[in-house]
Write a structure and sequence with these properties.
With 204 residues, this protein is mainly alpha-helical. It contains 10 helices and no strands. Helix 1 runs parallel beside helix 6 and helix 5 packs antiparallel against helix 10. The N and C termini lie far apart (48 Å).
C-alpha cells in the first residue's frame, strides 16, 4: 500500500511540476491531487527537492531499463527497432511531461537535475542506439539513413504527440487523442511509417 501511495505521489508531482515549474509547485497541491494529507507527502519525501529528484529518477530509470532490456543479439535489426520504438512510445504515454520538465530545466538557472541524469544515464544509451542503426545499415537491413536524424525524428514523432496534444487537437479538431483506442492506432501507424522509411524491405 505504501508503495502504491508513493507511486501516486510521484505521478501527481510529475504533472504539477510540469504545469507550474519547480518554484510554482506546492506540496499541498500534490497532496490534494493524490487525496492524501500534507504529512503523507513528507512521510515519503523530506523536501520538495527530494520529491522532484525522485520524479526525475523514476523517469530516467524507466528509460534506461527499457533500453538495456533489449538484447544485443541475436535479435534481428527490424524486430529490435520495433522493440525500441514501442518501449519509448509506451514510456511517453506513461510520462507525457518528460520533455516539458526537461525544457523547464533548460530555461531555469537553478539545478538541472533531470538534464544531468539524461547526460549521465541516457547519452550512453543514445550512442548504443546509434551504433545499432549503423550495424543495421552495414548488414543491408536498414536504408542508409543518418542515425542521429532518425533517432531525433522518432523522439519528435512520439514526444510531440503527447506534449502538444492540446495544440494538435485544436488544429485537427480531434477529440480523445489520448484514449486507449487512439493511442493504439497512433502507435501502430507511427511504427508502420518508421519501418517503411528505414527498412530496405519493409512489410507490405
Amino acid at each position: 500500500m505504501e508503495r502504491d501511495t508513493r507511486e501516486q505521489i510521484l505521478t501527481a508531482a510529475e504533472a504539477i511540476f510540469a504545469e507550474k515549474g519547480f518554484d510554482g509547485a506546492r506540496i499541498k497541491d500534490i497532496a490534494a491531487r493524490v487525496g492524501v494529507t500534507h504529512a503523507v507527502i513528507h512521510y515519503h519525501f523530506d523536501t520538495k527537492s527530494d520529491l522532484y529528484r525522485a520524479v526525475a529518477d523514476r523517469m530516467v530509470g524507466e528509460l534506461c531499463d527499457m533500453a538495456t532490456g533489449i538484447p544485443q543479439e541475436p535479435l534481428d535489426p527490424g524486430p529490435k527497432l520495433e522493440r525500441f520504438f514501442y518501449g519509448f512510445f509506451d514510456f511517453a504515454a506513461r510520462h507525457p511531461h518528460f520533455a516539458r520538465l526537461a525544457n523547464l530545466e533548460s530555461a531555469d538557472d537553478g539545478e538541472h537535475y533531470l538534464l544531468s541524469l539524461v547526460r549521465e544515464k541516457l547519452a550512453p544509451q543514445y550512442r548504443r542506439a546509434r551504433g545499432f542503426i549503423l550495424r543495421g545499415i552495414a548488414a543491408g537491413v536498414f536504408r542508409p539513413v543518418d542515425p542521429e536524424h532518425l533517432l531525433t525524428a522518432i523522439y519528435g514523432m512520439i514526444v510531440s504527440y503527447f506534449g502538444d496534444s492540446p495544440f494538435i487537437g485544436a488544429i485537427t479538431g480531434g477529440e480523445g487523442m489520448l484514449t486507449e483506442a487512439a493511442l493504439e492506432q497512433r502507435r501502430a501507424e507511427l511504427m508502420r511509417m518508421i519501418l517503411r522509411m528505414v527498412l530496405v524491405h519493409p512489410p507490405a
